[in-house]
Amino acid sequence: MKTNAFCRWVCLCSKEFIAVAVITGASSAVAAPVPASAQAGLPPGLTEAIIDTTVERTRRAFDVPGIAIGIVHDGKIVFTRGYGRRAEDKASPAVDARTLFAIGSNSKEFTTTALSVLVDEGKLRWDDRVIDHLPEFRVSDPWITRDFRISDLLTHHSGMGLGAGDLMLFSHSTFTRKEVLAALPSMPFTAPFRTTYAYNNLLYVVAGSVIERVSGQSWERFLQSRLIDAAGLPACQSTPPTREEADVATGQGEGGPLPVREGLRLPAVAPAGGVWCSADGVSRWAQIYLNGGVTPEGKTIFSRARRDEVWAPHALLPLPDTAEATKTHFRAYGYGWFIEDFYGQRRVWHTGTINGMVSYVNFLPELGTAIVVLTNHDDHNATYSIATTLSSYVVKGGSDDWIGHWKKEEDAKKAANAEQASVRGPGSPARPFHQLSSDEQRDYLGAYRDDWRGDIFVTRRGGDLRLTFSKADGLAGTLSALPHDLFVARWDNRAQDGEDDCYVQFERDVEGKITGMKMQLLGSDFSFDAQDLHPRKISDHS
Length: 542
Known about the structure:
The protein is α+β, with helices and mostly antiparallel strands. It is built from 17 helices and 20 strands. The chain has helices at 5-9, 38-41, 48-62, 108-120, 130-133, 142-147, 177-183, 202-215, 219-231, 270-273, 279-290, 304-310, 323-326, 380-396, 402-423, 438-442, 494-497; strands at residues 29-30, 66-73, 76-84, 101-102, 236-237, 276-277, 315-316, 331-333, 338-342, 345-354, 357-364, 369-375, 446-450, 454-461, 464-469, 476-482, 486-491, 502-508, 514-521, 536-540. The strands form 3 sheets. It has a 9-stranded antiparallel sheet with strand order 1-3-2-12-11-10-9-8-7, with helices on both faces. It has an 8-stranded antiparallel sheet with strand order 19-18-17-16-15-14-13-20, with no helix packed on it. A 3-stranded antiparallel sheet has the order 4-6-5. A hairpin with a 3-residue loop joins strand 16 (476-482) and strand 17 (486-491). The longest helix is centred in the C-terminal third of the chain and has 22 residues, at 402-423. The protein is globular and about 75 Å long. This is Serine hydrolase.
């Protein structure tokens, strides 16, 4: 999902909280049709006034263009509403309950549910070996390859590092799923198998390939026909929207025309983050989940037994920073879901961030409530604020000031980062960039190859050194020199890639010839996993 900085992080962040069907907005609230019984049907502790006030205050605090909220309670969808506008452009249309949003990693539960359908049909088991369904599957360790189970694809405890291989999925990548699968043997392991939590998108791509192999259909077709259409999810789809569709949100930093349907290229990342859905669609999805896989009309999509399996704790996680405040004593990961306690209630949830949008789907099963949040703003603090506040009202009839909490935290972090950048950061008076001569630049020019990401090029344009990636439409930037063969890559697309600027450290052999490079992210976007790149120089260019 090339999510901007926190787009992917929201899915794993140790602070993540409750889900509400929300899509963030920055202009006055625009109500979509709400069931007549919405006020009476809301969970105890919640009112429309509380929801509206929470959303409006959050939009002002975090400058969010548009929000959509959906709430399920006692077996019914009791509230859906759009707030604000569909894009950053102040002239864009209003959000409504049918506006399509990219839901990012909340697609993972669609993938695990698709696997659940295949388990229900007896076509696979959770403890099947991956190689029994995908004989070509390989990781760097032969023993781990032989013992890797379907369940190991889903719990983020493979031993691969945080966000490993995400550069094949995001940052304008054009990799196919087949190419991602072929690159897995080159991905480094940073921890023992099944011991350490590290959020991973690559293995959900593998899970999607398992679905395709077992079902004989593409992941997109299987999800659309067996889940989305079968469940009757309104305004929901397994493929990105096209120009033929009008009611579509645009995420922060995104823009430009949608593709035509005939030219639509399906991204490798889809099983980890490819679903687009509306507040109405996600709310019905949540309604079916609360009902154990059965639609309100009585049609079984997946069994309650499978629902309980994916919602069961399968791998322990660290507690969030806010654990003391929310009385959280444990956190775990199931199959595509986080599980924890929240003020004494069981909570099952997941977030998703992609294309400048953030989503949140949250269940309080013991209270029969689900809250879904979808937003078109790349700021996890906004969705946390709304979701945690509304969930607190549902659980305990009141809420701490979570909007103020995360606004204060965000402002403090921005101030600290700005101060560090101005005082000690690259390009500051303490570490000024310097201009290389044409002869000095020549050392670095050429093609470099990384075992899993492929070719990377250093070229010259005018007086600047330029860094570009193969298999990426638009990932390019200028290299600014610091002492000792160290550079900063500043990417051209500031709206989408500005938070992914990187250090690039070139390496020399004993004769002084450039032999390769290493990279390190300046920011905190774990999905720009530059630290796992080790490109070696394969050719020179003058």
